[in-house]
Amino acid sequence: MNQNLLGLSSMATRPILTALCDHIGREHGIPVRFDAAGGVETARRVRDGAQADLLVLAEEAVNSLEREGHLLAGSVRPLFVSRVVAAVRDASPVPVLDTESDLRSVLLSASRIAYSTGPSGTAITDLIARFGLTDVLGDRLVQAPPGVPVGEVLSSGRADLGFQQQSELMDLPGVVVVGALPGDTAIESTFCGGVLTCTGQEERARDVLGILGSEAAAATVRARGMRTHGHA
Predict the structure, then answer these.
(1) What is the per-residue pLDDT across 155-171, written as a single tens digit (0 to 9) for each?
(2) Is 157 helix (H, G, I), strand (E, B) or coil?
(3) Rounded to whole angstroms, how far apart are CA atoms 213 and 165?
(4) How confident is the model at residue 2 (pLDDT cuts 50, 70, 90)?
(5) CA 28 to chain centre
(6) Helix (H) or strand (E) run with residue 190 in it
(7) Which residue of 28, 172, 203, 211 lies most exposed, with the fewest beta carbons within 10 A?
(8) Residue 57 is inside which H or E element, if any?
(9) How far is the C-alpha of 13 from the C-alpha of 43, rounded, in Å?
(10) At 14, phi and psi to the nearest 5?
């Protein structure tokens, strides 16, 4: 008898996967759920032999795990594209982010800047280095602990400016999303899915990946701050 499928994912895709798993269960009769944690923690669990069927993580992490043999050859596919946005605490003035000069000014005026341990955090620190502001902002940069959303750092008052995937910052209490980064500073991350080698239900797991990345899923994905790969 077929068992429920279990997936592992990062926190960035948790709202999307929760909604799509409900749809897959209702419309396709495939019971599936995802356990979400920080991306680094999820990758560690896979390397430590966690028993699951599916994996959804940032592209670089998935590619590394595929090379290491943790994912079935040929099963990896891009699923979702997410943009990084800036956010501030509720009731704070909302800055203008129309130009790269605006972004530079916002960074320099912030007293504490929160960023994640995931790919968006790496992209933000790279951007700050590109601006030549690493030393200037060094003491003001606050990296959220693994699994802790940047929105929580903002709403608790530990930072007054934050950057993370839109899906993780939208609709959070105490947080106002300013918008995407302007011009050439825009940051997008691709999240990929794959079938874990330890699965006992390869065919159904591949079917689920196909649904997650389908045009039929696009509206649900957009409503939660991302887009499906290959669909506007």
Answers:
(1) 999 999 999 999 889 88
(2) coil
(3) 19
(4) low
(5) 26
(6) strand 188-195
(7) 203
(8) strand 54-58
(9) 15
(10) -55, -50
d(CA 192, CA 197): 16
| E runs forming strands in 60-148 | 77-89, 113-115, 141-143
Rounded CA gap, 22 and 218, in Å? 15
Q: Return the DSSP state at 198.
A: T
Whole-number Å distance between alpha carbons of 180 and 188: 10
Give the C-alpha separation, 82 to 190, whole Å: 6
Place of tokens 């997008």: 188
Confidence (pLDDT) at 136: 96
Does the pTM surpass 0.90? The reply is no
Residues 6+ apart with CB under 8 A from 195: 53, 54, 55, 71, 72, 75, 202, 205, 206, 209
CA separation for the pair 140, 67 (Å, rounded): 37
Q: Could you tell me if 41 and 146 are in contact, meaning their C-beta atoms sit under 8 angstroms apart?
A: yes
Measure the CA–CA gap between 183 and 127, rounded to whole angstroms.
Answer: 12
CA-CA distance, 126 to 164, in Å (whole number)?
A: 14
For residue 125, the cross-strand partners are none
- The Cα 218–Cα 226 span in angstroms is 9
Angle at 60 between CA 186 and CA 175, to 5 degrees: 45
- Give me the residues paired with residue 113 across strands: 141, 161
Closest CA to 58 of 188, 166, 186: 188
